[in-house]
Amino acid sequence: MSTRSIVTTALVLTALGIVASPVYAQGAAPAASNSATIIQWSILTAGFALGIAAGLGALGQGKAVAAAVEAIARNPSATTDIRGSLLLGLVLIESLVIYVLLISLILLFLFPFGK
Q1: What CATH number has the domain spanning 33-115?
Q2: CA pair distance 87, 90, nearest whole angstrom
Q3: Where are the domains of the chain?
Q4: Which of 86, 91, 112, 113 could form a disulfide with 39 if both were Cys (CB 3.0 to 4.6 A apart)?
Q5: How far apart (Å, rounded) are the C-alpha atoms in residues 115 and 109?
Q6: According to the model, what pLDDT value does residue 106 have?
């Protein structure tokens, strides 16, 4: 799949989301129902955020490791420099996934159940 088709698909889905969002606008619901809805959406949001972050983090780490192994294969004398850069990159990629985990835990436990 080409980059152009991926970008086009993303833009079309974003535009559809913007156009369709007023359809879901509703009046104020009773307090008990509203609380249950917030809890449900917090759980869904946390789950999707973790799934996307973990999946894309794994893809990024795989690409980084593949590039590092290829670089070491081409120039074995630079192994220590490549390994250091690889580990720094992997730590930064993993830290982004951990930040999403933290935000998801906040969504799950602090906001809906903290009242």
Answers
A1: 1.20.20.10
A2: 5
A3: 33-115
A4: 112
A5: 10
A6: 83
